[in-house]
Amino acid sequence: MTQKPRRFNAAWQRKGHGQVTSLIDQLPEIPADRPVLIAGPTASGKSDLALAIAEKWGGVVVNADASQVYDCWRVITARPTEKDEARAEHLLYGHVPYDMAYSAGHWLRAVKPLLRGPQRPIIVGGTGLYFSALTEGMVDIPPTPPHVRAEADMLDLEALLAGIDGRTLGRIDQRNRARVQRAWEVQLATGRSLADWQDETPPPELSLSACVPLVFDVDKNWLNTRITARFDRMLQGGALDEVAAMRDRYDPALPSCRAIGVPELMAHLNGTLTLAEAREKATIATRQFAKRQRTWFRARMRAWHRLTPET
After folding, report:
1. Residue 307, H or E segment
2. Residues marked as binding for ATP?
3. Residues placed in the known binding site
4. 288-302 pLDDT tens trace
5. Alpha carbon of 147 to those of 152, 154, 187, 290: distances in Å?
6. Domain 1-138+201-311 sits in CATH 2.10.220.10
7. pTM
8. What's the Cα-to-Cα distance from 77 to each of 37, 44, 222, 230, rounded to whole Å?
9. Which residues belong to CATH 3.40.50.300 in the chain?
10. Residue positions forming the annotated binding site for substrate
């Protein structure tokens, strides 16, 4: 799409969580046969918009957030509530066991049949790699053998980076442990670099011209305020109890257990952090993550229709 960026009505910002009437009124008419993609940083209001679009124009809300796929978390990952799910059908939320390996390839295979109906998919989330796999194509790399993953789990970030070729290092977020480990595992398991595999990427499953691609481009201070308020709502809504229920199964090597807020609240439960310290660390980690997301979306989603809240 080539439309100029549209802005949220300031009234939506004042009303806060869940109020998206003004934004809906500003969106272009969404054709019934067009899938909708909604990307953006954490806590920006993506899920609210997806639900509002589903109710106004029809469709099923489909998750594109790597942490929200796991069955052990709802509150701590800000998954849609049961009330939200009663308003419109939601798919690919909480459908993966906590200890199962799950990649962008798994997600793409799950999404493919949803692109062909019977309901229009409204794909929403903050995992940029999922969207790039969908709209730019993704090569089918062989699964990582368990012994390779076990070896990778034992290495620190510096050791993993040292085992990755330069071309691949130039393409990945070197601060993202999951992305670095994936590149290391591919290189060791297949004998080829991740960059080599990526160069054989097939055509995408969905082109931008065949859908309505929307991306939130938000002000840092506006978002940081929402991040803090949302984590406080998580605590009030039972996040600590949710993490406590996983205490006997907690494994920091598992991707599910690295969801932001989980290590911090687990440290509190184990007596190494006060609740106030855990809250502060989780909020800082979320802000840092959101900064990386904003940078990624601005660099990789320049052709998307941008939604910019007034601040």
Report:
1. strand 305-308
2. 40-47
3. 40-47
4. 999 999 999 999 999
5. 9, 11, 14, 33
6. no
7. 0.82
8. 20, 14, 20, 10
9. 1-138+201-311
10. 42-47
